[in-house]
Amino acid sequence: MNILVVEDDMRVADFLLRGLRAEGYRVQLARTGPEGLELARNSDLSLLLLDLMLPGLSGLELCQTLRAEGHHVPVLMLTALSETEDKVSGLRLGADDYLTKPFAFEELLARIEALLRRGREQRPRATTLQVADLVLDRERMQVTRAGKLVPLTAKELAFLELLMTAPGRVYSRERILSNVWGTNEDPLTNIVDVYVRRLRAKVDDGHPVALLKTVRGVGYRLDAVPG
């Protein structure tokens, strides 16, 4: 998941970069409107976080230009302005959502996830997910590793599917808990760690390459990259 942040306030930009990278997103930063436009045109983006007031080219102008050129990347506008007129202008020019500063980081994450989910729902859903020799057949709801069936419970399957939809992305325990068990689960529970051990025993044990990785202090990822 690649996110471009276009923000000229370095305090805000640093806060966004550190927070989003901790959640496993790949993040680029542009400090001006023209720089943001150039990166947006030439990068494979999942989402654009766009400040309204920018030097060189405003967020509204940047968004309008991208839409006129046929770019459909989801745009979440960030602004200190709360007037309804500004929000309406942004949405009419092609922004997908609007968030007024100051904002809670959890609300930002929720809005990002909603926009990314909406984008995925508009694309055909892959029937098969694969990471190295691990394959998840979504139609049969079954998993194989090196051609051999891996028996999984419904929760184990949902957990594994989440990791396989974005190989290499680091998911925090909180994000896994929310996606697999729902928001009502006690955030202090160790259920995520319990299921990681179960998945490792079923998916990795006996294979030369371990796919399920722990990123110390952050969370978990699934890929075939060493380390």
CATH architectural name of the largest domain: 3-Layer(aba) Sandwich
Counted by DSSP, the helix tally is: 8
Percent range of helical residues: 40-55%
> How big is the Rg?
20 Å
Please, could you describe this protein's structure?
The chain has 227 residues and is of the alpha/beta class. It folds into two domains: 121 residues, Response regulator (Rossmann fold, 3-Layer(aba) Sandwich), CATH 3.40.50; 95 residues, Arc Repressor Mutant, subunit A (Orthogonal Bundle), CATH 1.10.10.10. The protein is 41% helix and 22% strand. It is built from eight helices and twelve strands. The strands form three sheets. A five-stranded parallel sheet has the order 2-1-3-4-5, sandwiched between helices. A hairpin with a 4-residue loop joins strand 7 and strand 8. Helix 6 crosses helix 7. The radius of gyration is 20 Å and the shape is elongated.
